[in-house]
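Thought: the user asked what Trehalose-6-phosphate synthase looks like in 3D. I have the sequence; next I should run the structure tool and report back without guessing.
Action: structure_tool
Action Input:
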Amino acid sequence: MIVVSNRIPTGESVSGGLVVALHDTLGCAGGIWIGAHPEPGIGEETLDELGLTPYRRLAFRLTEEEQKNYYLGYANSVLWPLCHRRGDLVEMRPEYGAAYQAVNARVARMVGKIARHDDLIWVHDYHFLPLAKEMRALGLANRIGFFLHVPFPALGDLSVLSQPERFADDLAHYNLIGLQTRSDVARCLEMFRADPRAEFMPDGGIKFLDRITAVRSFPIGIDTAGFAEDAAQEAVNPFGRGDPGRFLIGVDRLDYSKGLPNRFRAFARYLENRPAGSRPCLVQIAPPTRQQVRAYQDITRELEEIAGHVNGTFAELDWTPIRYIHRSVPRVELARLYRKASVGLVTSFADGMNLVAKEYVAAQDPKNPGVLLLSRFAGAAEDMTDALQINPYDVEDVATAISTALDMPLEERQRRHASCLDVVGRTDVTIWSTAFLRALMTCIPSMTFPGFE
Ligand code: ADQ
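Observation:
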């Protein structure tokens, strides 16, 4: 098997849900994992073996220009805002599209050099939409699957692209298109339905010109048991001596899709109605990402202003309303934080799945669980119907939900938590990867894969 993703694990250890899942999958099946090296440069290289795993890691380096035009440019200033319904933030430049195509062609050649005819190829995310088409052009007839981690764009939004018709054509070169939710599948099918080149087959497949593809949802999850185990480790105290008492938690990459300004505003609105002395605090962990992109600089500044304003308005000598932390936190500490928090806040305006929602639920003590506030626009909301679902555009609605969550009786908390935990367990990350690979293999019954039959 060959896996292609933008990021690959570097260094000695493997952490993070997706990375662990792919590491285990490749560890079981053997194969090669290809991705971009975090440091800029030229060329390709094999990274040191990760322990005794039976797979290899192959990294390609992006030049400074490629980093700017392919990664920050086309991937994160065109496709990311497009998929997150922020057409207003799309920044279109000719050099972006050209670099995106060139990097995809280069990665296709890399795969072409090492792929055997019976290798399965699994491509991840919006950085590599045209990769299958580039590989087909080199003559690769392998079974190629694609998984999109972010929301599938609405048909109308695709018109933002200079050549919107290429989106369907690129995707149709994959044998299987995996998406997070049933709503994503509906939007993808709508795109194919509107395209005169596509024809729907009786078995649900899509014939697109001379190719056949399938579209299905595979909701991604986390390593549920591992996370619950970390969360229960009482020896770990993430606060040291600065215990805030009762608190709410938010954990997000600092991204405009996560609805952070409205979260802070809603928390402030909640505080207005709560007498001083009985107020909880909000711990917000948000490491900055993609800071070279203007929209990310803007959201960083906006959030600092709001946090400063809320803290200036409500702080007391011995209490700060918002503890706003800009760095990464080790996973075991993060798990402990989730467990101690009375409320977990997910307020995305658009989100493929949102793993934080699942991590928060997995980390709770089932006897005395906290409450998850979950945006109805996060993919996780499709199945986690017993989370307290909120409309992140409506600050008043979120403020009321914060109040409801903090006052919720134990029995209702337990009932809602048990239902959400059931969803988290059923979509565990190993179930996700196994289901995807099974689906990718079904069209070739003679093909077997150790551990995935
Ligand atoms: P993201 O947009 O990054 O992922 P999310 O699914 O919430 O969003 O995953 C974030 C991960 O990073 C979580 O595992 C979280 O614990 C971790 N994290 C965030 N801040 C951290 C911090 N300060 N320290 C340590 N860890 C931190 C994209 C899509 C999502 C989709 C995932 C997986 O945007 O919609 O769910 O991929 O497919």
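Thought: the tool returned a structure. Summarizing for the user.
Final Answer: Structure for Trehalose-6-phosphate synthase predicted. The CA atoms of residues 285 and 329 lie 8 Å apart. The two ends are 14 Å apart (CA to CA).
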